[in-house]
Design a protein that fits this description.
This protein is an alpha+beta fold. The chain is built from 3 helices and 5 strands, in the order H-H-E-E-E-E-E-H. A 5-stranded antiparallel sheet has the order 2-1-5-4-3. Helix 1 packs antiparallel against helix 3.
Length: 196
């Protein structure tokens, strides 16, 4: 009888550990998807604004001319520094030149063909960026959208999600899940021990 009870308790503990692992993993993935969706939504609006300004000017399609766009400068000065989640925002020309960046000192830097941002995931959304001029020495997830006018690709708009901030948020959520499952396992164990 005691062996059966101990085996039952062991199964409850193993089930709890599996539940913690599954919940933590699912929560992390859904949280990352949510952050990407939020940043991507902002990026889509910004790219639309950039493309619209080129369509209205009907001039030569030089991405460097976007530096004079006061709306984008105000957006980056107002939004990017105030959001903990946001590491950077940048416009990179087709040749790899950083045309605009939320940190003006990084402008005119070059992103080489071997840098991680040139390899994209199938959803054209997110890549880890660590040693890259865009991240300025910080680890980030890069959300990238093409800037196109007509059928011509001018470059890409990049927005970075701060990986340190995201991991800190994930760690806090992970401890909440562990505490919840620990309470459940402890409660079941207590009930079984009292029954014994």
């Amino acid at each position: 009888a005691y062996a059966c009870i101990c085996l039952s308790l062991l199964l409850v503990v193993l089930l709890g550990i599996w539940g913690v692992f599954r919940d933590v993993r699912a929560l992390r993935e859904s949280a990352l998807d949510k952050e990407i969706s939020t940043i991507r939504s902002h990026a889509i609006r910004t790219v639309s604004r950039i493309e619209h300004s080129f369509e209205q000017e009907a001039a030569a399609l030089e991405l460097a001319s976007i530096r004079d766009d006061a709306w984008i400068r105000r957006f980056w000065e107002r939004v990017v520094p105030r959001e903990d989640r946001r590491s950077y925002a940048a416009i990179v020309a087709r040749d790899g030149t950083v045309v605009m960046h939320s940190d003006p000192e990084i402008e005119s830097a070059t992103v080489s063909g071997n840098d991680p941002i040139t390899t994209q995931r199938p959803n054209n959304a997110m890549l880890p960026v660590i040693d890259n001029p865009l991240a300025n020495g910080h680890a980030a997830y890069d959300v990238r959208l093409p800037i196109e006018v007509g059928s011509e690709l001018l470059g890409h708009y990049h927005a970075g999600i701060d990986m340190v901030w995201f991991e800190r948020q994930s760690r806090d959520r992970r401890w909440q899940i562990i505490r919840r499952w620990s309470t459940v396992i402890a409660g079941i164990t207590l009930v079984v021990m009292m029954a014994v």
